[in-house]
């Protein structure tokens, strides 16, 4: 994508990306892989909507439909939304705190490759006997009854990619705690860094619950244990608890960084500092904390009894308070500002009412007694798409437009960007608003068809038409990306003109060491402060010196590949003789390369300060 | 003048129809509650919607002002405002108060709907005073057992109106969820335990729904989850008692009355009866009740819960159940039947009526 890469030739570029430990290149890898899976998940969504366009449709069969709906949910959550957000975190967060990289560059690469191989493994199920068909929640009685290897692909694939996510989360936590530039106190961190921090903490506590649940289910399916086998004294409700103890915080893992992206975009294009910064931080932390207290609201109809249901209902309602604080703070950031309606700002502005709608239906769902009606209907489908598409996907699209120049050094086309926005915005509401009513009229979710004469026809057709708008919007975005990459008109440090935070103080794309000299941070929105005092860039906090950088490594790729191989062995162990040897081989590759990494000393290398001064002032000004 | 009144009435009816179509079908929609449970849930929905609409209006007003008033007009730098304690306290406290207004009835209703203490009050014989029905969910059909009355039926639940009916819910294979949208919210049929709840079927609502409510499975349970429907016949108390008495009176299978039907009965007795009972007594153990009880099959409105009950549809189902309900458990359990055999079976099954 960059001119540098084109000069190097394709083979060298590929090798560079396979071995890179640079957070900016890993960010690009996350964006490419996440973007690809987003398209796959989107295609699955289109199949779902085409099937439901008319009653008694036979576009896809009942069994295949369940595979598509499972893969749509699983792909969108684990393989599209999270990696895309991880892409932004990698690309932006270290720059925002004035760091030269993340704390553990090697682990960062390992996290990506684990996610990548897990995702590829999961999607290979389409070609190897059928995809998982028990829903993304994979409730134990159904997933244990599911025939074939579909659910095994789900379990092993998520286990591998989940490990990658956990590593990524820990890495971001350590980075934010340890690597902030001089003067960058916690309460001066940009909101996107704050939300990355809280989301990473949520990953740290939530993913182990998923890992344990998947591990137990994997043993039930592949190694003959009975954790969830009711007949043998197991209990399937425990799966539901484990899944949702992970699953609910997961919602906040996704949506908090989305809040973060909007909290960056809104001040920039309003030319005004974020209103109520400290209450925004407080609300973020509180949402993260409460996010762990409410998982059973996904289980109101399981029969936990009125005491549990009432407690979880009230706890869930409480989350509305910090979320409301955020909504008002965004509005009052714009209030009195000077708003420029760029494409990212379009998304940010549209996000507020859209997310509000998802939020208020969330409070409605929290009313346990009424939830007995909403639960597992299209009302819920509408609700979580308002939250996840209206929050997360809007943020990803906004972030793509907003950070594209910082990542690739060239601006996406604004006119095409606005076309994408309007098509997506209209299509989204057309698709999902009506689904609230479908649910209230009695249409359960996860149905492969509906019978005529129940009053569901018109609304479903409208919903399908809306989905096509979103599909066209995505195609326009792809065209935009291609055109932009071909034109490749270079931009400077601060292409939007009103950048406030540190990432806009260095070239686009930044040099591989980010900051020639670490900047001195003098308050919230450090670049803005310097600009207002008439300076062109940041004041350095250190004299020009040698920069210590890590070496590239192919080991993360090999470690992840070993687990990928082992997963096939584990899955086919009972079917074929080669299963067990392949399992052992895969593990040997993984542990062997870990051992290699442990015994080999890799001290990295230094960029000498002479080289830095020669470098026609590509680094930080001053 | 008269014409005008008529016209007015017409437009009123059209308007009502429009509003009602916005509320879904009376036999299926949660927005046309036909029972105490659905009613109180509907009230809670309305309350929460009203509060939320209030919030939406306030936010929308601020939102619109912001969009129109603060568009960039010149390149000046606006005043950098840190925040406002007063405002922040306002939008923290007011939502808390609003949520309290919602939380109190939510908690009360949650406890009310979970009150199944009447199920514990039993006489010397161990029967409850209240009507209790054991619901057993199976891939992809429903069994309804009346333990006090000692009868079993399937696919079409029969209940009396205007009294509380208590349910024991469980599943015999994977997790399902028992839901009659117009009458009340759902509860899961777990594989691990028995869930209990109650519903009340309103006679007026039942009338509006043509005495037949739609029931659904609300938890993904396999390929035919979408087709795991059942129906609920809500009868006035006397009619219900009479139905129970009639069912209890059937000790021998209903005899076929035509030659063709008798032929069908023979085929049935040679193969189908292994799984399908045609007597309503609940004496056979549960594990042996592998398929829907067909005692009153001819009285039911639907075949397999989804096709209108007529001989053509029975034939359609018998010829190839797989196309009607993919992955059902009946496919391939019986050999190939000739068209004549299917005709005979359909004739026999349509004649399985207890309400003459």
Automatic annotation (TrEMBL), chain A:
Cytochrome c oxidase is the component of the respiratory chain that catalyzes the reduction of oxygen to water. Subunits 1-3 form the functional core of the enzyme complex. Co I is the catalytic subunit of the enzyme. Electrons originating in cytochrome c are transferred via the copper A center of subunit 2 and heme a of subunit 1 to the bimetallic center formed by heme a3 and copper B. This cytochrome c oxidase shows proton pump activity across the membrane in addition to the electron transfer. It is a multi-pass membrane protein. Its EC number is 7.1.1.9. It comes from the Bacteria. Keywords: Cell membrane, Copper, Electron transport, Heme, Iron, Membrane, Metal-binding, Oxidoreductase, Respiratory chain, Translocase, Transmembrane, Transmembrane helix, Transport. It is an enzyme of class 7 (translocase). GO terms for biological process: electron transport coupled proton transport; oxidative phosphorylation; respiratory electron transport chain. Residues 9-522 form the Cytochrome oxidase subunit I profile domain. The gene is ctaD. Gene3D superfamilies: 1.10.287.70, Cytochrome c oxidase-like, subunit I domain. GO terms for cellular component: plasma membrane. Its main location: membrane. Its cofactor is Cu(2+); heme. It catalyses: 4 Fe(II)-[cytochrome c] + O2 + 8 H(+)(in) = 4 Fe(III)-[cytochrome c] + 2 H2O + 4 H(+)(out). It is found in: Cell membrane. The chain crosses the membrane at residues 27-48, 68-92, 104-128, 153-179, 191-219, 242-262, 274-295, 307-332, 344-366, 378-398, 419-441, 461-483, 554-572, 578-596. GO terms for molecular function: cytochrome-c oxidase activity; heme binding; metal ion binding; oxidoreductase activity. It comes from Robertmurraya kyonggiensis. This is Cytochrome c oxidase subunit 1.
Automatic annotation (TrEMBL), chain B:
Gene3D superfamilies: 1.10.287.90, Cupredoxins - blue copper proteins. Keywords: Cell membrane, Copper, Electron transport, Heme, Iron, Membrane, Metal-binding, Oxidoreductase, Respiratory chain, Signal, Translocase, Transmembrane, Transmembrane helix, Transport. GO terms for biological process: ATP synthesis coupled electron transport. GO terms for molecular function: copper ion binding; cytochrome-c oxidase activity; heme binding; oxidoreductase activity. Binds a copper A center. Residues 22-117 form the Cytochrome oxidase subunit II transmembrane region profile domain. Its cofactor is Cu cation; heme c. PROSITE patterns: COX2, COX2_CUA, COX2_TM, CYTC, PROKAR_LIPOPROTEIN. InterPro entries: CcO_II (IPR045187), CcO_II-like_C (IPR002429), Copper_CuA (IPR001505), Cupredoxin (IPR008972), CuRO_CcO_Caa3_II (IPR034236), Cyt_c-like_dom (IPR009056), Cyt_c-like_dom_sf (IPR036909), Cyt_c_oxidase_su2 (IPR014222). It is a multi-pass membrane protein. Belongs to the cytochrome c oxidase subunit 2 family. This is Cytochrome c oxidase subunit 2. The gene is coxB.
């Amino acid at each position: 994508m960059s001119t540098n890469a084109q000069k190097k030739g394709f083979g060298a570029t590929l090798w560079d990306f396979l071995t890179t430990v640079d957070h900016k290149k890993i960010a690009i890898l996350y964006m490419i892989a996440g973007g690809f899976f987003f398209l796959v998940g989107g295609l699955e969504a289109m199949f779902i909507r085409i099937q439901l366009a008319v009653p008694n449709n036979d576009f896809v069969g009942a069994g295949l439909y369940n595979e598509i709906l499972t893969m749509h949910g699983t792909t969108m959550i684990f393989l599209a939304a999270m990696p895309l957000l991880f892409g932004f975190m990698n690309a932006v967060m270290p720059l925002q705190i004035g760091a030269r990289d993340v704390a553990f560059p090697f682990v960062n690469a390992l996290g990506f490759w684990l996610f990548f191989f897990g995702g590829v493994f999961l999607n290979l199920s389409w070609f190897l006997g059928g995809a998982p068909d028990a829903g993304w929640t994979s409730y134990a009685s159904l997933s244990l009854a599911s025939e074939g290897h579909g659910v095994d692909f789900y379990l092993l694939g998520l286990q591998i990619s989940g490990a990658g996510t956990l590593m990524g989360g820990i890495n971001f936590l350590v980075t934010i705690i340890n690597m902030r530039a001089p003067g960058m106190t916690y309460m001066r961190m940009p909101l996107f860094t704050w939300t990355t921090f809280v989301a990473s903490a949520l990953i740290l506590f939530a993913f182990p619950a998923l890992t344990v649940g998947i591990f137990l289910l994997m043993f039930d399916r592949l190694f003959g244990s009975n954790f969830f086998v009711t007949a043998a004294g197991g209990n399937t409700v425990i799966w539901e608890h484990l899944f949702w103890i992970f699953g609910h915080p997961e919602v906040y893992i996704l949506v908090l960084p989305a809040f973060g992206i909007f909290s960056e975009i809104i001040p920039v294009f309003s030319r005004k500092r974020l209103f109520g910064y400290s209450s925004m931080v407080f609300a973020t932390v509180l949402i993260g904390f409460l996010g762990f207290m409410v998982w059973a609201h996904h289980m109101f109809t399981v029969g936990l009894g009125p005491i549990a249901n009432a407690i979880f209902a009230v706890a869930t309602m409480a989350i509305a308070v910090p979320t409301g604080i955020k909504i008002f703070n965004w509005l009052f950031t714009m209030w009195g500002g000077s708003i420029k309606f760029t494409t990212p700002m379009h998304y940010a502005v549209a996000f507020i009412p859209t997310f509000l709608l998802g939020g208020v239906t969330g409070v409605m769902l929290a009313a346990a007694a009424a939830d007995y009606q909403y639960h597992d209907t299209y009302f819920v489908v509408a609700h979580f798409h308002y939250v996840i598409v209206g929050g997360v996907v809007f943020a990803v699209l906004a972030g793509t437009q907003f950070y594209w120049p910082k990542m690739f050094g060239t601006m996406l086309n604004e006119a095409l960007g606005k076309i994408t926005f309007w098509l997506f915005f209209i299509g989204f509401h057309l698709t999902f608003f009506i689904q609230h009513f479908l649910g209230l009229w009695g249409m359960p979710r996860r149905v492969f068809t509906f019978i005529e004469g129940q009053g569901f026809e018109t609304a479903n057709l409208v919903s399908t038409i809306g989905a096509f708008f979103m599909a066209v919007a995505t195609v326009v975005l792809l065209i935009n990306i291609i055109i932009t990459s071909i034109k490749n008109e270079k931009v400077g440090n601060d292409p939007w003109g009103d950048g406030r935070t540190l990432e806009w103080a260095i070239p686009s794309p930044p040099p591989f060491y980010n900051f020639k000299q670490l900047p001195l941070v003098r308050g919230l929105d450090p670049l803005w402060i310097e600009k207002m005092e008439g300076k062109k860039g940041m004041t350095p906090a250190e004299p020009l010196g040698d920069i210590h950088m890590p070496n590239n490594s192919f080991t993360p790729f090999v470690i992840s590949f070993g687990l990928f191989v082992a997963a096939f062995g584990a899955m086919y162990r009972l079917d074929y003789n080669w299963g067990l040897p392949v399992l052992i081989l895969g593990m040997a590759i993984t542990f062997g390369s870990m051992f290699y990494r442990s015994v080999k000393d890799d001290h990295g290398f230094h960029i000498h300060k002479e080289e830095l001064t020669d470098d026609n002032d590509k680094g930080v000004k001053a | 003048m008269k014409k005008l009144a008529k016209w007015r009435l017409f437009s009123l009816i059209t308007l009502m129809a429009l509003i009602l179509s916005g509320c879904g079908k009376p036999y299926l929609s949660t927005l046309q509650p036909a029972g105490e449970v659905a009613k109180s849930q509907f009230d809670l929905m309305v309350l929460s919607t009203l509060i939320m609409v209030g919030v939406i209006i306030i936010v929308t007003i601020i939102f619109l002002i912001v969009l129109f008033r603060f568009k960039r007009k010149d390149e000046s730098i606006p005043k950098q405002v840190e925040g406002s304690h007063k405002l922040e306290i306002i939008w923290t406290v007011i939502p808390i108060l609003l949520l309290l207004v919602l939380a109190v009835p939510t908690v009360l209703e949650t406890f009310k709907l979970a009150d199944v203490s009447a199920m514990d009050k039993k006489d010397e014989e161990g029967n409850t005073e209240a009507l209790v029905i054991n619901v057993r969910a199976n891939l992809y059909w429903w069994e309804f057992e009346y333990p006090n009355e000692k009868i079993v039926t399937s696919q079409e639940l029969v209940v009396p109106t205007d009294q509380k009916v208590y349910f024991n819910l469980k599943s015999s294979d994977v997790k399902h969820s028992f839901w009659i949208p117009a009458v009340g919210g759902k509860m899961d049929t777990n594989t691990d335990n028995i869930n209990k709840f109650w519903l009340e079927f309103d006679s007026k609502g039942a009338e509006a729904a043509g005495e037949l409510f739609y029931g659904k499975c609300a938890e993904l349970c396999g390929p035919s989850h979408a087709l795991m429907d059942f129906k609920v016949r809500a009868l006035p108390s006397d009619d219900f008692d009479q139905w129970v008495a009639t069912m209890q009176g059937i000790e021998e299978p209903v005899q076929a009355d035509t030659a063709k039907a008798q032929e069908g009965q023979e085929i049935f007795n040679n193969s189908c009866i292994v799984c399908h009972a045609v007597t309503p007594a609940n004496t056979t153990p549960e594990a042996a009740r592998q398929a829907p009880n067909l005692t009153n099959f001819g009285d039911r409105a639907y075949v397999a819960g989804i096709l209108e009950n007529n001989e053509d549809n029975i034939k359609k189902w018998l010829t190839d159940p797989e196309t009607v309900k993919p992955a059902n458990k009946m496919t391939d359990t019986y050999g190939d039947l000739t068209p004549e055999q299917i005709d005979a079976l359909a004739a026999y099954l349509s004649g399985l009526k207890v309400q003459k």
